[in-house]
Amino acid sequence: MNEKAPYQKGWIFVIPVVALVAFNAVIPLMTVVNYSVQETFGNNIFFFEGIKWFQAVLTSDRFHAALGRQLAFTATILAIELPLGVAIALAMPRKGPWLSVCLVLMALPLLIPWNVVGAMWNIFALPDIGLLGKTLNNLSINYNYTQQPAAAWVTLIAMDVWHWTSLVVLLAFAGLSSIPDAYYQAAKIDGASPYAVFRYIQLPKMRRVLTIAVLLRFMDSFMIYTEPFVLTGGGPGNATTLLSIDLVKVALGQFDLGPAAAMSIIYFLIVLLVSWVFYTVMTRKEEA
To answer: Residue 156's domain is classified under what CATH number?
Structure first.
């Protein structure tokens, strides 16, 4: 006679979480969807417009330019932070007191609030009084991120690399720490080169954590707002006006609620779609 499975009541503890998610995510999302298909002329009077705002956003040169800048920024920081983070993790000691020192140093940038990071780099890179800006100009390098688009981009990327490479380092180090010593001993007996050890032992063990790193850094960098807004405000001109900054300008600066709501939904779908593609491709390679 089969024993009956015990009555499960664990779902009761999930109800507060579901209610909180519904309040913080679903309800605001449906509000944005509501605004995206309507137009208002004030006095809380709305008129149904259908997909007019979606068509306007998707055919807008302004949206295409902001999206292009956003994609370029995300691709650049991923290309820098992932290899750099793995290299630093490989160079860190595995045992001893210096390991704790390295871990603390790596965690420090992640503890700084985003608006403080932007303010720090704003002052640090000022061409007249900032340590970075003043030093570069004293070395006869013409640098002024407030007037030169290229300098603004370099400064923005350097700030993000400084702030977030530590996350990749800590995740990669966690993957390396899970490798048993027996793997290294076997590789040493076989006379494997350092590259072979990395290729066949370390990289496969880091694949899962690097998948998480790619997803987190993609989502964070694609939705970044506070740091570039505090650092450059989207300037000079529109050189660093990323998608998030342009969305805020449309929503709050121009108070065009319909286009801003449609742009928000398109923005959300892009992040969701690309994250799903990243995860699917990387997990399929792992299964293969």
So the answer is: 1.10.3720.10
Query: pTM of the full predicted structure?
Result: 0.86
Domain count, the chain: 1
Domain extent for 192: 61-287
SS (H, E, C) the chain: CCCCCCCCCHHHHHHHHHHHHHHHHHHHHHHHHHHHCEEECCCCCEEECCCHHHHHHHCCHHHHHHHHHHHHHHHHHHHHHHHHHHHHHHHCCCCCHHHHHHHHHHHHHHHCCHHHHHHHHHHHCCCCCCHHHHHHHHCCCCCCCCCCHHHHHHHHHHHHHHHHHHHHHHHHHHHHHCCCHHHHHHHHHCCCCHHHHHHHHHHHHHHHHHHHHHHHHHHHHHCCCHHHHHHCCCCCCCCCCCHHHHHHHHHHHCCCHHHHHHHHHHHHHHHHHHHHHHHHHHHHHHHC
Q: Model confidence over 31-68: pLDDT tens digits?
A: 888 888 888 766 677 778 888 899 999 999 999 999 99
Distance CA 86, CA 82 (A): 6
Q: What pLDDT is recorded for position 29?
A: 82
